[in-house]
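Please supply some protein, with fold tokens.
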Amino acid sequence: MVVGADTLEIRPEQQSDDHRVIALWHRCGLVVDWNDPQRDIERKRDVQPELFLVGLLDDRIVASVMAGYDGHRGWLYYLAVDPDYRRRGLGRLLVEEAQRRLLEMGCPKINLLVRSANTAVLDFYHHLGFSPDEVLSLGRRLIVD
């Protein structure tokens, strides 16, 4: 457990959190038609569940981040902070905890993807030390949800 800004408790996500995490993601505009959030959570629970973190204030889930490490790069997904709790450093705390856990695993670099329509978050990540890589992201669905 990590305690920080506004006494934020950071811990791994638990199955009993699922509905609250999905509600947070909806509130933050992270849910899209082509991703089933419940399936995303279940898949993460099967692979490195210790890297799927939630942030709680007074037992209310106000933030989340999903991280992963493939032995070459670390990745961050589903970083969300409830709009009512933004600008308090909660997102920074979750990213720092995910980074700490990835570094403990020997992860040399973290990547993340930002949807092109979500330009507002770019300043946040830049402030945390992230910078654009000169790459083009490609994807291919193997399982259609």
Observations:
- Helices lie at 18-27, 37-46, 90-104, 121-127.
- The CA atoms of residues 34 and 144 lie 8 Å apart.
- The chain has four helices and six strands.
- The longest strand covers residues 60-69.
